[in-house]
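Lab notebook, bench 4. Continuing the backlog of folding jobs that were queued last week. Each job is logged with the same field layout so the records can be merged later without manual cleanup. Today's entry covers Ribosomal protein, a 280-residue chain. Filled in by technician R.K.

JOB TYPE: sequence-to-structure
TARGET: Ribosomal protein
LENGTH: 280
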Amino acid sequence: MLKSGFQSFRSCYFSRGFASSLFLLNATGATLSVLRASPKDHRKDPKVILQRVSRKKQRAKRPADMNPIYMDIPLAMKYMRAAEVGNPAKRTTVSVQVTIIPEKGVSPIQGLVALPKPIKDTCALVFTENALQVEKLAATSYSYKVGGNDLVEQINQGLSLDGFSHCFATPEALSILKPIQRTLGVAGLMPTVKKGTVSDDILSLVEKSAGQLSYRLKGYNLAIPVGRCDFTDKEIIQNIKAIADHVNASQPTGNKKHIVGRCSLSSTNGPSVVIDFKNL
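JOB STATUS: finished
OUTPUT FIELD FOLLOWS
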């Protein structure tokens, strides 16, 4: 009798365990989805996204001097230069990172800005076979390498493009660039009509584009170099002001405006501090 009682208990225990396992295995898809839900899944919820953007907008509207790591630009540059001691000044880059909250349905901010104090000397590739334009370019103070098929052949044979910051071409010279189109594209130097680097008047184009810096909003961030550690405080301030004015001028017309938020200043190896980008 004792044995039969034990067998009854064992059969009852294992049957319950087996039933529980069956329940889990035969659970509905909804139950399984709850069991497998990831904490990150809520980030795709439209309500959560709106709340997150709303918080970013509130933070972006706060005055810069309310931030605990706020500094004026001269004080910030002291920290940048101190952090770069031992590094050649010409190999350091001081940049601003601006938070931009884009309005829905409005094109992102982008453009070309001419800095009062250029970060790099203009070194341009110019593709043209017009002898008169070559002669005019020779009289300018810009560093350039000009040519037609001969220049294309030099690049095909391994001419380094590291030192070149700009590339221009006349419309008729575009057809000869096909063999080096990929090489120029990888270096960000392929001249196109859309970028404004193709013109019949190359000389005017070089003069207009010398010292210009391109920028484009990526996500919520706008990162733009503004100088080097060997620049004076005044030159850094003038460059930042030129960028701030250009960004404000690039705002879409009408009531829909992008919100310009926190701006950080940093160097290649230095810290990141908050500066006032709106009141310069």
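OBSERVATION: DSSP finds nine helices and nine strands in the chain.
SIGNED: R.K.
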